[in-house]
Amino acid sequence: MKRITALFLLCSLLLCFFIPVSKASPAAAIPTEVLSAALANAQEESAQDTEIRLVPDAAINREKRLALDDNLILPAPTRKDAAMSPESSLTVEAILSRSAKAGQYYCTAVYRGDAPSGTPLNAHYGAFTGEPGLYEYLHYYHFDSDLAVGTYTIVYFTAVLDGNTLKPIEGSAFASNLYVSLYPASVQKLTIENWETGETLDKLQLEAGKAVLLAVGRTPTPSYAVRLNYATCTGPYSVEECNGLLILHSNGYGWGTLKIETSTYISVTIELNTCVDPNGHHEAEPVVIREPSATIDGLTIHTCTQCGAYMRETIPHYNSYYYKFVDVPEDAWYYSSVCSAVGKNLFRGVSTHHFRPEEKMTRAMLVTVLWRYEGSPDISGTPFTDVRASDWYAQPVAWAAQSGVVNGVGGGKFDPNGEVTREQMAAILYRYALKTGLDTSGRGDMSIFADGQDVSPWATDAVSWTVSCGIIGGAKEGGQLLLHAASGATRAEVAAILVRFIDRVADPLPEPGVVDPTGAEASGSTGNIDWAFFPDGTLVVNKTPWIGTYELEIYKFPWEQYIPRIRTVKVVYGAKYLHQYSFRNYPALESVELPESLTTIDNYVFSGCTSLRHVQLPDSLQSIGYEAFYNCTSLEEIDLPDHLVTLRGYAFAGCTALQEIDLPDSLTEFYIANQGLDYNVFLGCTALKKARLPVALERIPSGLFKGCTSLTEVEMPVMTDIISSGAFYGCESLESITLPPYLQKLSSKVFNSCPNLKQVVVPCWSLDFNRDGDPNLEGDNVPFGDPATVTVYGYRGSPVQELAEEFGYAFSYLPE
Asked: Where does the SLH domain lie (predicted)?
């Protein structure tokens, strides 16, 4: 007799629906004794048919069982190694109905023990109702305190009503065993003592294959309507919830994070760490993928030299909540300077939400700020006896000394904790400007300051120069302008001075460009938009108008009559945004010149420009909108900038001349802030032969290269977790591909309609397969393309091998 061992998650919070819910209704007219008699009959029938009585879950063939009868009962989905509580609801029944025949009923009963005997603890029955079609209905038993740790048996069968008697349908009765335990095996129990702040647990190391139970904000009673705990997990982990208990499973090696939120949005984030090496991770040099800016998060990748696992570290942009310093109010004179200094990576807070603007700046702090601005060069050794190699400022001081930016205070000492005076800071900036070849010839009028004569002789030139550049100014006190050259400078003052030094001297912003109409055939100004059209077909603009979708048919561009003749578009410096539809369907447009100030190309900007051949995208560009270059059929190449963080859907779809694409590493998964790599970006790029994906891309979006019939070479990202349905659908020239080693989820129809695909290498130890592919794509829901032609390469005994064998692929072993 075959038996099934099933461990169900006893949590009413997890309601799993895989197909639409049926209209199941109780059969109240049938007496309980009639059900009991039917149960006894079902037990006798199932005992005679051992093949059906206890069926392993994996062996249940729904189509075969449905062929026996139109209505069928199957066990509810099981959860392995899940924590349980006696005060819970229990999911014990899943009902499948194809045509909902009248007069048929579903019946289940729960017995204590490993066989159905005696009086059931609980029983349930109801009529199959509903329209024709396949439905699923989950039933929940409420045991409350009656459910104890131990073994139970669930009996399932379909019955018909004959007069006043329920008769089981032959072949429909079977049973399964349920083993209930309070906690899963090999579980550590950890408690976050202060749930409101999460201060007691911020890091957690797990052994691969183990589970950890976190007791956090436990729900006192089952609740269907409100989930008091929300948990999301990134990395080689999965998380389950059970009445306020979070069960964390490590199903691989690597780093990750667990983020938990309550219904009041109080959250805690736990860093997770799992490694194949018994000594834990040994990190290689972190790789900075993207630096943070005012609006864009930074991204750094950490890699383990022992097991090759990786971890993504997101550095919040400086306008994010992370940098909302509670001691820097928005109405403070230094607010914008502090924000800018943090955004330029010059300053950091002394804690997460504290900047301490009035704290005096030390010499060590100042040289560290300049060292960061210089790119944090790796320099060791220092001539100063009061600076140790282990000090946090050792490298900045060594750099400043070797480059001549700072001098000591005498006696071979640097005095790192000494307060920086305003004249000392002026001298340091002056020496830095000399070192980097900046213009230091300017001198300011020191007589405007009542205390200008008090500047130390060694600092006179430096202070005068900073005054001439507008870097250091004075403060009015008692009707006089005072410089306070010998006074200590606060962190807020230094932030303001350094931002002015960078913006006005070290890296000054150019003045906004102007549209020169000299020689133009036509020109004009509309609001704040200036333009000029020249006889050679060049249109010069300083910005473009915003046009709502509802205005598109009635809006007339100022240069409307010249659109058929426009061959070149030049946008002058200062423009940051090309609004949607700006140059859509310009038939003669061949080239575009864009300024370094540009950050956004909005939706449809160059859509339908079939003659467009050359576009030089500026390094400042951060976002390319929906269908921005759609059907630019003459565009053969495009160089995407390194700081691009948003590439919206269909951006280059239909660019049938595009031959190669290198997606910058700054692109990651598309998420709620409309940043990342979106779906169908290169749909129908039939000439595209080679593509490189970003190294830190979490998800390859659906339809990314759909219909790229010439694609033969794809450089896959190492860190991809998910490949979505149809990502490579219709890539007819693709013959071989190697999937990412840390891939966790693969959707169906990824490689459908790839007739020449012969080899798919899947170097993954764990892989979940989403069997529900895009319904708009033709073909079967298969994982690796056509089973008749594709050979799958994977590890022996892995889920990849099981998946390949299930779908009939030829399978070859990878060396371990």
From this structure: 321-379, 380-443, 446-512
Q: How many residues does the chain have?
A: 816
What whole-number distance in Å separates Cα of residue 20 and Cα of residue 703?
Answer: 26
CA distance 213 to 239: 10
pLDDT digits (tens, 9 = 90+) for 529-542: 999 999 999 999 99
Cβ atoms 248, 206 nearer than 8 A: yes
Q: Is the separation of the CB atoms in 110 and 120 below 8 Å?
A: yes
Rounded (10°) CA dihedral 142, 148, 152, 157: -10
The CA-CA-CA angle for residues 417, 422, 425, to 5°, reads 70
What amino acid is encoded at 535 in this protein? P
* Strand-strand pairing, 568-571 and 591-593: parallel
Taking the CA atoms of 403, 406, 410 and 413 in sequence, report the sign of the dihedral they define.
Answer: negative
Q: What are phi and psi of 325, to 5 degrees?
A: -70, 130
Beta strands across the sheet bearing 211-215: 187-191, 211-215, 245-250, 237-242
Report the C-alpha gap between 174 and 94 in whole angstroms.
13
According to DSSP, the β-strands at 187-191 and 165-168 are unpaired
Residue 489 CA to residue 499 CA, distance in Å, equals 15
User: What amino acid is encoded at 324 in this protein?
Assistant: K
Scanning the structure block, which residue is given the tokens 């001691």? 327
Question: Under a CB-based contact definition with an 8 Å cutoff, are residues 732 and 709 in contact?
Answer: yes
Other C-beta atoms within 10 Å of 289: how many?
20
Sequence-distant (≥ 6) Cβ neighbours of residue 233 within 8 angstroms: 239, 248, 256, 257, 258, 259, 272
499-551 per-position pLDDT tens digit: 999 999 988 878 888 999 999 999 999 888 999 999 999 999 999 998 887 78
Look up residue 799 and give its DSSP letter: H
How far, in Å, CA of 537 to CA of 248, rounded? 63
What tens digit of pLDDT does each residue of 384-415 get? 999 988 888 899 999 988 888 888 888 889 99
Q: Which fold has domain 5-180?
A: Coagulation Factor XIII; Chain A, domain 1 (2.70.50)
Spatial separation of the C-alpha atoms in residues 764 and 57, rounded to whole Å:
25
Q: How far apart are CA 183 and CA 618, in angstroms?
A: 57
Q: How far apart are CA 411 and CA 464, in angstroms?
A: 28
Cα-trace Rg, the chain:
34
Residue whose tokens read 């190449």: 637
| Torsional sign, CA 411, 412, 416, 421 | positive
Residue 794 has pLDDT above 80, yes or no: yes
Q: What is the pLDDT of residues 91-112, one digit of tens each?
A: 555 555 655 666 777 777 777 7
Closest C-alpha among 213, 202, 278, 279 to residue 249: 213
Backbone φ/ψ region at 638: left (φ over 0), alpha (ψ -120 to 50), beta: beta
